[in-house]
Amino acid sequence: MALKRLGKDIVLTDEGFLCNLRDWSPDIAYVLAENNGIQMTDAHWEIVDYARSYYLTYKHLPNTRVFIKGVKKTFGPDKGNSLYLHRLFPEGPLRYACKLAGLPKPPTCL
Q1: Among 53, 68, 109, 110, which one carries the catalytic annotation?
Q2: What confidence tier does 9 reach under pLDDT thresholds 50, 70, 90?
Q3: What are the residues whose beta carbons fall under 8 Å from the beta carbon of 83, sequence distance 6 or more?
């Protein structure tokens, strides 16, 4: 599967994750979001940026519990909870935050 953006083929996995982290850009995130029925807002960007920062800092993806705890520590209890994150990403907060952030599929996601 591939996206055509700015004259370049962006290769995706069968599940729609970027194959190459370096292909990511905010423009690509908008396309991925649209392809997944998500309209990006500032609230989405906070979580996507958090996921990218975590991955680039620690070189791995957290499990969902650790992800939610990290969001809570960074943004407070109003945003660091399952209910809030599922409102933003109904099909799975960690999975879709990582997908839109251009990160690999989390190993804990089916």
Answers
A1: 109
A2: confident
A3: none
